[in-house]
Amino acid sequence: MAAYVGYDAMYRDGIAQVMPGVFSQTVEFSDISYQSARKEARETAFTVMSSLFNYFPADSHVQLQVVNAPIPADEVGRKVFFEPGERATAGLAEEYNRILNDKMREGVSNLVRHRYLTYAVGADDVDAAVPKLARIRGDVEQTLARIRCSSRALDGAERLELLQGQLRPGSRFEFSWDKLSPTSGARTKDFVMPSTLDFKPEGRSDCFCSDGRYGAVLAVRSFGSVIEETYLASIIDLPLPLNVTLHVQPIAQSEALALVKRQIDWMDKEIIDEQMSAVKKGYDYQILPPELRFSKEEAEELLDFLRNKSERLFVYTGLVYTWADSLEELDRRVQQVTSVAQGCTIGLEPLHFRQRQALNSVLPLGDNHVTVSRYLTTGQVAMQMPFASQSLDEAGGGYYGQSKESGNLVLCDRKRLASPMGFVCGKPGSGKSFSVKREITNTVLAHPEDEVVIFDPAGEYGNLVGALGGANVELAPGCSAVLNPLDTADVADRADAAKLAYKTDAVLALSSALMAEGREGLPERDRSIIARCVGEAYRECARDGRLPTLGDFHAALLAQPEPEAADIALRYERYVKGAFSFFNGQSNVALDNRITNIDMHGLGQNMRVFGMITALEMVRNRVMVTPPRPNYTWLYIDEVQSLFAHPTVVEYFARLWREGRKFGLICTGISQNTSHMLANAEARDMVLNSEFFLLHKQSTADLDAWAEMLQLSATERGYIGDAVKPGEGLLISAGIRVPITDDFPKGPLYDLWNTKPAEVAEREMRRAAREAKE
Fold it and tell me: Transmembrane region positions (predicted)?
């Protein structure tokens, strides 16, 4: 049975000896947003894929594959997305797992798509093959990185698991290298091969049976007049287990030119024969058969491409492999695949009596055993893009909805991003708050070692934080909480100069929020006075061994000779005396809970900005400690646009955005109206330095601003336009762009996240009625 699989040996590093003198390696590469991307992005992807195929020499063989692999049946409906964790969140985790498993059972989500590139080279032995394959791997990874497509080489065990998944679909992979002892005589083939292989099940020649599962490999026989970039995606997007394989054998340029010239010479002879025959019969010799005339024109065009337009010629074989539990189901799937292909003007035909060779050809080994081939140019091969509807399914990630294109669960882990900072934006009623609360729940359940801080200017996160076992801190007149903008407790081990620089920046931002008119910012004289008084307040209080407060800063301002100092002091007076003096004192609020909500709905607009900047300083002190902490701090800032009113505030916030990443701070800005924010240069830099965006329905001005900033295509604009429903939108995670929709069922989690006034009011009435009965 082992002789039925076309390779000789598999090594631990992932190199396979396909046959004597031929060795291959497989690279898995990620998806990109191609089908919905802008024209310029698609052209760039086409150029990169063209250069990738042109890179391979004539003595190599290239195999491109897209595999739709079913999720194991024992995982469907039983997957643990979130561990129970603490007692306070155990019930929510159980409910969340139940809902997501119900969504998995819908069927489409039971497939995971992978893309592979396998290349084979000739070498005397494996030692000689290693540097060749390593060089190719490095060049392939660099080329794919140009379109933000990450890639990695599979090791030996991963290639064997991939082989087994094609030979024995649905079987559990239990191989380990320890089982290959010299005394056992076992080979890797023995662990991946099926027990039985029947290439004439029930007398049929167009399929085979492997351990009770039926499979069929179809070959691409014909294309339409033009190869469309969407044809491969149309087949890949089918909700079926599939393996779409393209074998590409480069032809040496000199040989390709000679081949085309011979074809032209043959056609010239045919033309001469046709003309002589026409003259003998008295016809016009200039009238040629259309097929011959068109073939001659195509051949001459091809010769020009090969000579002058960096095109190469390849021997191409296209195969499609699918499988099922019964012959009846297999026939239905084959019919579905061929119908879609026919709609794309692709002719697919079964390979009668050649299923053994076909099966070996769809295995990721870099060897083609099927002779159904044709010649294609670089552009024709590169046009067959392996990128279909993009998916995002990161292990350990939180749930953000379902893909609007495929229905797959969208699971994202922002901690994997190089720059995890992000924004969640949308019009009121678009589902923005629901999405943020869901992500906060994701964060708490998926990352129990991390902490969460929320700036809540509307007082809408309290119920969620309480249910998650967190602490709500209310900042309002008459409350007991006190925040000291000049507190340095969390950076006590920093040098005095560094602490003073931090606090000077913070007080300048506070002063800008209080004093700056329009968008002019603070005058330089005011900035100098403020910096001087901050230093004097710290020096005076250091003598008493205590931290300064706003009252000390205010006293230092009153002691200055400049009239501007008196004006600054007057503006600060209401925060030092009276109802708003809860910012004047030593802090009694600490971020010592895993989840802390800073509730500022009791503050007016100006006070709210003042409170947000003060709380931001507390968070900055928290995360910028030495040595760095192993856990992350997730900061959610609602109505973030209010921080962009003055240049000094923007400068302070942008610095926190840039520096926080190095200290494990993951910031999320939440906003309803973003066009005003994106008009600010610092804010635009923050967006450009962020890799996570969750955009819901946008107003016209905001939509134009985001489209320009993120280079959204017309299709992607439609995902956040006026026609989308609440909960729908566009999720961008680094280079991945997924249109999402979310029909989350009502229940305990829905009630925690829901912010629709009518439904919230109805829920509160029901709760009050229950309490009255009790």
Answer: none
